C-alpha cells in the first residue's frame, strides 16, 4: 500500500502561503496537487507529493519560522471527523487517545504513541516516510500539536 494523506490537509499549506501573500496555485501545480482535490473528503494524495509541497513552500517563504506559523493555522476541518472528534473530546487525554488510534486515517505514515512517565505524558509523533526532515518540519509538527491541544484544553495549556 502506498503512503497517502487526506488531500484536505494540504489546505494548511495553501492558507500558509496566502498568509504570506504568496499565490499558492503555482506551487500546488509544481507539486502536482490539484487544489480542487482539497474539497473532496475522499481524495487522498501521496505522502511524496505532500513532502514535495512543503519543500516548495520552504523555498518560496522567506521566513525561517514559517513552521511555527503553519502550526497556528490548523483547523479541525483539515482532519474531517478526527478533527471534530478532537474538539468534542471531554478531555485532552481522550483527544490524544483518538489521535493515536485514528491518525492513520489522515496520514498513513504518521506514528503517534503515548507513554505515561513519572514526569507526565510523553507524546511521540513521527513520520518515518520523511527521510530528510528539516527543522521547519519539526517546528510545524510541534506547533500543530500544541495548537490542537489548546483547541481542546484551552489557551492556558503550557506544555
Can you describe this structure?
This protein has 159 residues and is of the alpha+beta class. The chain has seven helices and four strands; from the N terminus they run βααβααααββα. Helices cover 50% and strands 13% of the residues. α5 packs antiparallel against α6. The chain is globular and about 45 Å long. 25% of the residues are buried.
Give the helices and strands, then pairings.
Elements: E1 4-6, H1 11-19, H2 24-30, E2 44-46, H3 47-60, H4 66-72, H5 81-88, H6 92-106, E3 111-117, E4 120-126, H7 135-153
Helix pairs in contact: 1-4, 4-7, 5-6
Strand content: 5-15%
Mean pLDDT: 93
- Tell me the series of helices and strands, N- to C-terminal: EHHEHHHHEEH
Give the low-confidence spans: none
Tell me the Rg in angstroms: 15 Å
Shape, principal axes of CA atoms:
globular
Total of DSSP H or I helical runs spanning 4+ residues: 7
Helix content: 40-55%
What is the number of beta strands? 4
Strand order of the largest sheet: 1-2
Largest sheet: 2 strands, antiparallel
Give the class from helix and strand content and strand pairing.
alpha+beta
Our measurement of the CA-to-CA distance between the termini, rounded to an integer number of angstroms, reads 36 Å
